[in-house]
Amino acid sequence: MKKTLIFLSFFYLILTACNQKAETISVAENSKNEIITLEKNSKDEIEGTYKTEGCDLSVIISKIKDDYQYTFKTNLRTLKGKATYSKNSSGEKYITLEGIQWDEYEGDISNENDSIPEKELEIPIGIDALYVKDTLTIQNYGNSMNSYTKISECGLKYIQLIRK
Questions:
Q1: Which of 42, 17, 40, 45 is nearest to 27 (CA)?
Q2: What angle do CA 44, 57, 140 make, to 5 degrees?
Q3: CA distance 154 to 140
Q4: pLDDT by residue for the chain (164 residues), tens digit each?
Q5: Which of 2, 30, 130, 150 has its CA 20 to 30 A from that of 107?
Q6: Model's pTM, two decimal places?
Q7: Contact 44, 124 (CB under 8 A)
Q8: What does the alpha-carbon distance between residue 98 and residue 80 come to, in Å, rounded to a whole number?
Q9: Distance between CA atoms of 62 and 71, rounded to whole angstroms?
Q10: How far apart are CA 22 and CA 75, in angstroms?
Q11: What whole-number distance in Å separates Cα of residue 82 and Cα of residue 68?
Q12: Which helix (H) or strand (E) holds 145?
């Protein structure tokens, strides 16, 4: 009887382990050429309403079936789209708000005085936010070497959106 019980317990554990869905669904590169892992069924619960102080800006992230969706609101616009949760090779977690075009992008302007004319740069699409606990952090603009502005409605260098 004890052997049967042990066997059934072992068999149950094997079946349970085989039926669990894998968290990782794919591996890709982000805009900084870092290897990232896109995750499904993450232990971090990212759904919620995120707001910042100092700017009229909010992001609502909701899960519909197996995908995350966002609603991005400022005093000038409301955008909706897909949100992708990922983790880079060093373990940092990111949420990408896909489909949002940056407001300004001049790229690398350190060699601005070169006589070779540069072709027109494409403005990047998609805003990455570092995700730590209940906070999304977006680096909103660059520096003198790499000039860009992602969200012109907010003048903060680092926009911190905290889940409410």
A1: 40
A2: 80
A3: 8
A4: 444 444 444 444 444 444 433 333 344 455 554 555 444 444 458 999 999 998 999 999 999 988 999 999 999 999 999 999 999 999 999 999 999 999 999 887 766 565 555 567 899 999 999 999 999 999 999 998 899 999 999 999 999 999 99
A5: 130
A6: 0.69
A7: no
A8: 9
A9: 9
A10: 40
A11: 6
A12: none
Place of tokens 């983790």: 87
Which residue type, as a one-letter code, is found at position 124?
A: P
Q: Amino acid identity, residue 62? A: S
**Which DSSP letter does residue 42 get?**
-
Contact 100, 72 (CB under 8 A): yes
**148 beta partners:** 105
d(CA 144, CA 122): 19
**The one-letter amino acid at 148:** Y
Q: What is the DSSP string of 71-130?
A: EEEESS-EEEEEEEEEEETTS-EEEEEEEEEPSEEEEE-TTTT-SSPPPPPPPPEEEEEE
At 155, the amino acid letter reads G
Tokens of 55: 């700017």
